[in-house]
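Severity: low
Component: inverse-folding endpoint
Summary: output formatting inconsistent between runs
Steps to reproduce: submit the following structure tokens with default settings.
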């Protein structure tokens, strides 16, 4: 015969589950005794026992002038509790994923701590227990994004193929996350581990080719910056398409009459001659420049690869 759980224990278990799943983050208010009586239809004494039990487990704490909130460091060892460090990691991961999804959908400008809190159903202040500010959040988002495209453990044999693969993976990331290129800055680099991994990959690819360390470093960072530079236009283009409903290709098509008039004016003969048969796209420009960059680097290699 199954034992009937006391009302206060049942309600506490429901709130405990919400805390463990990260639906209520540290600093978030939990239902007050009055709210518990109204929602679950129990007496005030029962509602008090709910909060008292959660407090004994170290899950909540009373804050004068605020109410009862989720504890910043839930005590380990309570019924069904995970270690606090594991909880904190899971909650931060949840915050980062939600921030990336928001930036992907609406751009980095739309990402604010208040908006993110609303998306997660928590207060903005509770987010600061896991990230110091928006700047730190963006760093964590960028690192998480670069971590989505893992470089293979077994790289291609040739140095050029390795650099081409790294560039392709970076471009794909920027396409997936249009805000990412704008968040990067070579003058004040974010120093994210998953981004540095691409630099390290390029340096390893260029090792043993007769290039000095300074040349290898410049080549690796130049490659990274080259791809990022082409990707910087992706977020403005995504924003323009979203707000206007007109794609870049449609916009260019609408400019054909004006462009034809400029060409036919005779003021730009070289442009008119080269335009015939030329089809430009973000990808064609990326690949043309990458080929030229790697061709130039090849001329500086003095030791043939084995």
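Observed output (run 2 of 3):
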């Amino acid at each position: 015969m199954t034992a009937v759980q006391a009302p206060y224990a049942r309600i506490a278990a429901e709130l405990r589950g919400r805390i463990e799943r990260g639906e209520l983050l540290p600093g978030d208010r939990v239902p007050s005794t009055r709210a518990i009586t109204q929602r679950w239809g129990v007496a005030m004494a029962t509602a008090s026992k709910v909060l008292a039990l959660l407090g004994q487990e170290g899950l909540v704490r009373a804050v004068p002038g605020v109410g009862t909130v989720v504890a910043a460091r839930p005590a380990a060892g309570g019924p069904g509790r995970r270690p606090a460090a594991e909880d904190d990691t899971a909650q931060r991961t949840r915050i980062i994923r939600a921030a990336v999804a928001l930036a992907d959908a609406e751009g980095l400008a739309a990402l604010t701590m208040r908006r993110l809190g609303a998306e997660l159903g928590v207060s903005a202040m509770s987010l600061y227990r896991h990230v110091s500010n928006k700047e730190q959040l963006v760093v964590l988002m960028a690192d998480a994004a670069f971590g989505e495209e893992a470089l293979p453990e077994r790289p291609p044999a040739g140095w050029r193929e390795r650099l081409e693969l790294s560039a392709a993976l970076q471009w794909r990331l920027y396409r997936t996350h249009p805000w990412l290129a704008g968040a990067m800055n070579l003058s004040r680099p974010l120093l994210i581990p998953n981004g540095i991994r691409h630099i390290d990959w390029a340096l390893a690819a260029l090792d043993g080719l007769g290039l000095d360390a300074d040349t290898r470093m410049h080549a690796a960072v130049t490659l990274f910056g080259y791809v990022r530079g082409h990707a910087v236009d992706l977020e403005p283009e995504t924003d323009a398409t979203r707000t206007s409903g007109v794609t870049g290709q449609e916009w260019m098509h609408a400019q054909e009459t004006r462009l034809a008039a400029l060409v036919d004016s005779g003021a730009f003969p070289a442009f008119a001659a080269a335009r015939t048969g030329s089809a430009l796209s973000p990808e064609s420009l990326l690949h043309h420049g990458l080929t030229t960059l790697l061709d130039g680097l090849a001329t500086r290699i003095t030791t043939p690869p084995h």
